[in-house]
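Homework help board

Subject: predicted structure for assignment chain

Our instructor gave us this sequence and asked us to write out the predicted structure in token form, then describe one feature. I got the tokens but I'm not sure how to describe them. Can anyone check?
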Amino acid sequence: MNAIRSILVFAWLVISVIPIGLTLVFCSLFLKDDKLWWWFAVPWLKGVIVAARIVGGVRYRVHGEENLPAADDMRRVVLCPKHQSTWETFFFPSMTSHPLAYVFKKELLRIPIFGWCIGSVGMIHIDRSKHSQAWNKVAEQGQVLMDRGKWVIMFPEGTRTERGSKGNYKNGATRLAVATGAYVIPIAVTSGRCWPRRSFSMTPGTIDVSIGAPVPAEGREPGELMDEVERWIEAEMHRLDAQAYV
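My token output:
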């Protein structure tokens, strides 16, 4: 039964992205990326989350949502979520009050339709093999995008980790926050409970999303700030998903 649920969700995801994506790409010739974000990207992303909930049985509950600044709050923000699954890459853009700009590897731009879309909505693509150039691009584009009211989202572990494990936390997100005077918001996500990494199989259940209080980066050192973010996220992961850490 779980296999059928998962196939139906992914079939809807693939089929629905074609008309939405092509329309978005066409409209990008005439509209600014903020409008593309709210008119096309967010409704489709919400649709994926709804499909995962209704068909796949993947529910969620959010703790600390009041820690996210409101739509009229123009503080610069860098979101730092735990990364266990593909689920959160759809979820966060679908529920935040400001447009999000992911930092992602440029290879994703080659994916037909999906890659064209993410290249049209004002995100930051980098060449991971060129470390110094990649960081310079993140810093320059991050500054510009945050000046326009966007939030930047960076997974500090860099890649998806298995449930109950911890990756190597890198300080790129806190370097950007310090350089731009932004606030860092740590987020714990137990998505591996329902949608494991590198898997198309979903298990019905509830994902917990815990949003920490914004931490001002001004006057901080990137390394020690990331240590604080890491401690908060990992402690929260142990609290929310204690069974995975036995």
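Reply (TA_rk): Your tokens look well-formed. For the description, you could write something like this. The first strand starts at residue 58 and ends at 63. That's the kind of observation they're looking for.
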